[in-house]
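Sample entry (442 residues):
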Amino acid sequence: MTSGIKKKLFGLMLVFIVCLIAISPPFQHFAAFPEQLNLFDGQGKQLELSMPVHAQVTVKNPDIVKVNGLSKPSFDLNLKEPISLRTEHAGQTEMQFKLFGAIPFKTVKVNVVPDLKVIPGGQTIGVKIKSKGILVVGHHLVDSGSGKKSSPGDDAKIKVGDLIMEMNGQRLNDVNKVAAIVQEAGERKRPIDIVILRNGEQFQTKIAPAWDAGDKAYRLGVYIRDSAAGVGTLTFYAPDQKAYGALGHVITDMDTQTPIVVGGGEIVYSNVTSISKSHNGEPGEKRAHFFRENKVLGNIEKNTDFGIFGTMNEAPDYGTEKNAIPVAFASEVKEGPAHIYTVVDGQKVERFNIEIVHVAKQAFPATKGMIIKITDPRLIEKTGGIVQGMSGSPIVQGGKLIGAVTHVFVNDPTSGYGCFIEWMLRDAGILMKSQAANPKAS
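Predicted structure, serialized as tokens:
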């Protein structure tokens, strides 16, 4: 046998051995063994390496986490047996594993945060949101009557999606104030000093109003808007923090598709009057109208990738859960059965069966955390699956709030995406970044 053939056979055997190791249970357990754990105060956790070796474990702060019931800084473990953790109080610690007491093997950071419980929602809500400034949603030409048409806004390089924050030093968030400023500037033949917010950055420019012969008024040649309204679903209410989260996704302007920068707003009750069922290729929607508008549930302070957030001073009516329940970190969510809470008629929140068919491993915030499938025949019969207006419906698994419905699959309305509740709690200001996740998260 030539040396070349021997080398090829050796290479194939090496690949085969590596493949065997890669698919072996110990290696798979090792690959899945976390480098960071996020736990609530008083929570237990079991880890499995299933490796037939002993290791020395050093716990940096043994008063924060007990390992196998021990509060010792260092001791030996049989890694073939499950490792039991029990948190004692909030704080940060670190566990270092050394094989045979000498070979560095694994370091696990453990963040323990105060216990947190919230009341799951499911109520359909009316959303009234005000933008931080005046949103530019389009351009139009102004006919001066002399055969000349122009758009002062386009000439001033104002773009669709820009926010007009100030005009001549006057702060703006109401379109009704714009006409008077434009008319005065036009009559005085002076350009308007404006402050624009674009992509998070502010800059100043000028715009000269043009006379509109048809309207007999001065115009800027831009279409503008200062607010939006719609319906969605409340995800949670945190009684201790007097805070809420809803929708599970960002609110964008319907014309520009840009996220609305919040300048204020409120949420109110909403009444579902009918359902347009979802079909393959055509998502349905909840038909609803605002209800008890004089009863403001909460204000709107943030509009992020994970929904809207603000202050709510008391638990809302019509919920199925009166008591707060635990929440789960993203790492705790498992594939398998779960429930969603939502409204399909009037204001009554009902519980429906779903299946979590895929869970993404996310060490930092991202919107598509899990894929869910509606399995409840009652909900499928009523809605065809997930419909518009259902986003924000809380997802509960094992008695814990784990996330919210976000989007429907257009070609399979019984399925869609959900986001993890951990990211919503962060954006609500209830769960701090420094408390819970990877320092690289943003």
